[in-house]
Amino acid sequence: MAISRAFLLKTIDATVGLAACRILGHVNASNNADQTAPAEEIQRILLIRPGGMGDMLLLIPVIRAIAKRYPAAAIDIVCEKRNAQVLKMAAIECTPLLYDARPFNVIRHLVKHTYDIAIDTEQFHNLSAIVAYISNAPVRIGFKINPLRNPIYTHLINYAPDGSELLQFMRLVAPLAISSDNITIIGTLSEPVAATKNFPSDIASFMSSNRYAVIHAGCSSPLKQWLPQNFAAVLKELHLRYGLSAIIVGDSTDRTTAQNIVKSADAFGCQTISAADRLSISDTANVIKHSSIFIGSDSGLAHLATALDVPSVVLFGPTDHLKWGYKDNRHAIVYKKLPCAPCFIFGYHRPCKNNVCMKNIRPEDVLAAVDQVLQ
Q1: In whole numbers, what is the pLDDT of the chain averaged over residues?
Q2: Residue 234 and residue 100 share a domain
Q3: What distance in Å separates the CA atoms of residue 354 and residue 118, rounded to the nearest whole number?
Q4: What is the pTM of this model?
């Protein structure tokens, strides 16, 4: 059985990262830092954003607020390769430092450059604090959660486990006198997304000849996934009630699920096509942007639909809908209130045998939310 990259990173974080934080915490107890330099003197800022696309999309309004506050400063962002595409779509002027593609280049870059401010947006893990330390920035801001890494930061920010994640990110820039007023992810990527020249012709033809919904049946965690037959049942009603076809999106792990949904949908006459593992993130954004509605479990693509301000229905099970969900007349959330939910915290699931939080969501629950959004 292959070891996943996420598992490997968590293992390194819990061993090497933990030990390094213990050592640095003793030699660098510097929570009483000097005040931040005047805005006109800030020349380079480092943001650290490990993790998935959803977190990066939530960070876009924060990055824009930082750029507005320090218009002359260069911004470097430590992130995964996939999130470099998100930054490009958002037209963020920055230098992405891709730790999953070129980790040693990232370290060399950090050592080579002088930083005035380092902001660690990781909520709990250890390695991001080490990156902040390597930057040698006189101002290092991070969440006050993990006591082992707390001494590495000069400014500690309280984190609310049950509060909106976007607002938590905005708290990180409070020491920089940046306001969080009117900050939202909705419509963050409202500008049209252009298709690339390599966009699959069959998908382009399908988009031009159909009104369609976008379905994302996959997720980074199997505990967040809804059954394919439930999505097929929803598609049947979308076809009957609204005359919608469907495009199934996702990555390589979603191909089989997408194909099963297409077969089920074809059986009752709903035109459906699978785009799973066939599109880049920017091309997936193009497909979502031109759809009538997005339906899927809590995931990076669900956040992408919200950022594009496309009508959406998002299913929540082990993750917290209050922290990651958005609800207004164009965006609906579906969840079942259970004493054990949410159980997904800081990237870890509590032990779960029956996944009842997702199993209890019925197709009619999702369709009721669809009717609310589309009508």
Answers
A1: 87
A2: no
A3: 42
A4: 0.90
